[in-house]
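// run 5 | inverse folding | seed 20
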């Protein structure tokens, strides 16, 4: 069970809270809670559904078959697993991998919110319906997959769950197409945030203004 290196105290405390959480019944059947993993400065955050058997055993997200496929998709998009943050809507495995219950999703909701705050990613990719509903409660995944929405200065991109693509072969091309858009989405938010930073600097430090203009002079 490896935590991301150089975690801030806030993160260490959050992981500790998740690992000892007894807010719903799932704590009674878990072997390990699965907080999430990845660097704290990740630009992309994936939010899956819930730990399965392997994840429960290892205390790490997406280590089974879906995990291998997710990693394949991440690499196909030109990224590395080690540079993205991966977590789930539920931090504990539902028995027999049943669907998460609303009460369980509610119990973990604050944990997910705090992870988003601490990572502050450019792009959040929701994997599957349960994760999508945190941001798009009434949407249907087949209608909105791959289409980003700006929420609080970042893009939220709903995507199919990798397990769905493994079971329904015709979804593989769709999910690959959606992942291929990720680098463009990251660039879009990076430019937006850089623009905001320049604007902010020019407000607080007017001396910068003429210097920036100088850059464009012959
Ligand atoms: N493994 C996870 O960690 N999450 C999922 O949603 C599926 C498999």
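// decoded
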């Amino acid at each position: 069970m490896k935590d991301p290196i150089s975690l801030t105290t806030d993160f260490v405390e959050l992981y500790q809270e998740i690992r000892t959480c007894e807010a719903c019944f799932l704590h009674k059947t878990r072997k390990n809670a699965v907080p999430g993993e990845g660097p704290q400065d990740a630009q992309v955050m994936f939010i899956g559904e819930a730990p399965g058997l392997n994840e429960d055993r290892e205390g790490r997200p997406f280590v089974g078959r879906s995990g291998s496929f997710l990693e394949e998709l991440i690499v196909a998009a030109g990224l590395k697993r080690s540079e993205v943050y991966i977590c789930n809507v539920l931090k504990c495995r539902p028995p027999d991998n049943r669907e998460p219950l609303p009460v369980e999703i509610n119990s973990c909701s604050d944990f997910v919110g705090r992870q988003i705050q601490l990572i502050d990613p450019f792009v959040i990719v929701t994997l599957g319906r349960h994760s999508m509903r945190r941001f798009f409660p009434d949407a249907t995944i087949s209608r909105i997959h791959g289409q980003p929405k700006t929420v609080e200065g970042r893009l939220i991109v709903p995507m199919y769950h990798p397990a769905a693509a493994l079971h329904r072969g015709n979804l593989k091309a769709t999910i690959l197409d959606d992942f291929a858009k990720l680098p463009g989405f990251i660039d879009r938010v990076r430019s937006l945030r850089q623009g905001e930073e320049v604007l902010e600097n020019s407000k607080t430090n007017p001396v910068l203004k003429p210097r920036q203009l100088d850059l464009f002079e012959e």
